[in-house]
Description:
The chain is an alpha+beta fold. The chain folds into 2 domains: about 1-30 and about 110-185, Ribosome-recycling factor (Topoisomerase I, Chain A, domain 4); about 35-105, 2-Layer Sandwich (Gyrase A, domain 2). Helix content is about 60%, strand content about 15%. The chain has helices at about 1-30, 80-85, 110-145, 150-185; strands spanning about 45, 50-55, 60-65, 65-70, 95, 100-105. The strands form 2 sheets. A 4-stranded antiparallel sheet has the order 3-4-6-5, with helices on one face. Strands 1-2 form a two-stranded antiparallel sheet. A hairpin with a 2-residue loop joins β1 (about 45) and β2. The termini are far apart.
Amino acid sequence: MSEEADKIISETRKRMQKSLDDLVHQMAQIRSGRASPSLVEDIKVEAYGQLLPLNQVASVAAPEPRLITVDVWDKSLLQAVEKAIQKSGKNLNPTNDGSLIRINLAEMTEETRRELVKLAKAKCEDHKVAVRNIRRDANDQLKKLKNSGLSEDLLKNYSDQVQKLTDEFVKKMDDLFAAKEKDIMTV
Length: 187
């Protein structure tokens, strides 16, 4: 019986970790004070008859704090890459010199920084809600085990473990947000 409960706890940890990993990925895409390749790497480019992430058709680098360079491997895709960056909704203006695409990032205003912090906070809250939903699912599964013979004490013990996992992952998400907020607001 406790073997099934251990499996539930293990699965809960994996699902919460996936949520945290996704938040890390999404936070990396939010612009902070300096340029980062992760800001554009996932932009989809129409190439070879399909949509591919930018990092599969070009190498992306941030050689300076406010500059991102995109070196497209197949130069026939330069126009498509430039168009994809413009249409990405990330307010980026690429310049194409025929061999390299440069994206100069404007200095962020206080208002822009506050908007980005709001966006990061919203993403963090969404992921914390996901973790709490995972907790609810795990507790529901554990209660079903109670009906098939799990003792009240063991149920309480496993429910406490699920709560500890929830607290652990919510704290990691809060810490991640705090670091991102500091990064965005640093001038």
